[in-house]
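So, read this over?
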Amino acid sequence: MMKDGQVVRNNSASHAREMVRAAPIRRLDRSQPFVTGIRSFGVMIDHVNAVVLPVRDVEKCMSFYRDKLGFKLNHKDDESAFLAVGGKGGLVLGLISVDSVAKLISEEQVRPREETIHRTYYAVFVEDVDREYEELKRKGVHFVKPPTTQPWGQRIAYFEDPEGNLWEISHFPKK
């Protein structure tokens, strides 16, 4: 906030709510974030470089993301693989053996011998979900839900990788 020509920081929760309320909310497309116009609140973490999936079979999952989804393999060893999503500066998908993740963090936290419940999934905006659905099906990708138009107008389909990690592809049809 500017006051008498100087920047004044206001860290109050009410100021944050005011900034969010003032931000215009627009319909999504591939190039738009969910909410636009929100200014930084001095947050230390302002982007995500990589998403890491602990997996049981690095080779099988690496092949899936490289060969079926077209991600670019940047690095591979016995316990991990790192793939680029999008062009330069895009997100990196890390696939690390669940046993290696347990060693890095802790067996108690990771619980490598347990099956887990899905609590998250990854969402990607595409130009045409039906076209992507057909292309990925031809490549052998297993969809858990075909393209369906939601009440708010978004068309969404869900697929899983070889270990059951869920992905959403979607778009808002042009009117």
